[in-house]
Amino acid sequence: MTTTDGFGAQKVPRLSSLDARRADLYGGPNVAIPPKHLMASILSHDTAQEMQMATEQLSDISSEDGSPQVVTSLTEEKPSITADDFALAFDIDGVLMRGGEPIPEAAAALKYINGENPYGVRVPYIFVTNGGGKTEEERCLDLSRQLDLEVSPGQFICGHTPMREMAEKYHTVLVVGGEGEKCRIVAEGYGFKDVITPGDIIKTRHDTTPFRKLTDEEYKNSRARDLSLTTIEAIFVFADSRDWAGDQQIILDCLMSKEGHLGERSQTFNEGPPLFFSHNDVVWSTSHEHTRIGMGALRASLEALYKAVTGKELSTIAFGKPQIGTYQFAMRLLQQWRKDYHEINKPPSTVYFVGDTPESDIRGTNEFNEISDATWYSILVKTGVYQDGDTPVYPAKHTCNNVLDAVKFAMDREMSKKNKGGAIDDIDSNAGPLRN
Ligand SMILES: [Mg+2]
């Protein structure tokens, strides 16, 4: 199994291991740090143009009954004071949204940091989600509608955003996951020249997945091709698989191939293309009362399957939180956003990251805090994966009931700091030592 320049590889403990704990699945060395050139390139992606496009698209949005949606405009007059010393970063699922619906306190929290607070201060913020499956622009439009507030692609990172620049390296790729053709569209939008989906392979060879038949819609959209002339150079799981059995069969076929030629099996099982996941969250929060398995579970499953079928270990690569590269990327996006939209041309001293998953949001924030010039301050909320009474393996600096409490805590802490000339006696009871 090959890896890519600039990327490490992670071995996740086998699910078959009797003593494997959930935390073990997240353990091991970090992987998938997007290389510097990748980040620079993404950030030079025309943020201003994206903002303008999103603004124009938002102005075209009408609700189903034809009446205009109420969306706060970027062009509205700003409050007179914008905090230049601190900023906020939010996870989305389990923090602001759950099961496709806004968490009750989400709208109030965003209004609070947009100036509706006792201090009259507006705070710059970004969103960093492991989720995906849609273009960044589409996801921002969804969020804008759901949260009744404009969200720009210039303040948004999802799990597969860093895959954009992999298009320079790989020509023909297998893209897995998501609804219908959406991930193919995302991948083509990123510049991948030849994007194959599992549907294309099933349409070409219906016996690839004996129990999986394409729907009429899938058959129409899928593209039959001569597989004998196809070389799959890399596999990307962009979003959660909708058909684990079929997708795993096809991914395994690729991994076991000789250099990505589906018709040719490797004798050594170490000649297949690299396999990338947009994140490694084993579970995530939905409207169901218990967490649901996610992409990290598919990753663990595939690695176990590969071992069972070939006897060989499989190294795979994951982006997203808690990878340090994702936080480096987030910091640069935040600085760009502060500069472009808030006209603040300096890095923030403190970034509060609000998340619901200790193993990704909190772990990544705490680890990035150790190496970042700025303080990255983790706040855990109880509205998603983490539930009251759990003992997180990766404790946050502070824990709150919900996102509104989190932003109030951050604001109060900063204001208290200001009043004390920068020093603060921290009020956390569940925190490790602070760097401030
Ligand atoms: Mg979450």
TrEMBL record:
The secretion signal range is none
Per its record, what are the GO molecular function terms? hydrolase activity
One annotated GO biological process: glycerophospholipid biosynthetic process
- Does the keyword field hold Iron? no
| Pfam families from the UniProt entry | Hydrolase_6, Hydrolase_like
Q: What keywords would UniProt list here?
A: Hydrolase
Q: Name one GO cellular component term.
A: mitochondrion
Out of the domains of life, which is the source?
Eukaryota
UniProt name for this protein: HAD-superfamily hydrolase
Q: What species was this sequence derived from?
A: Aspergillus ellipticus CBS 707.79
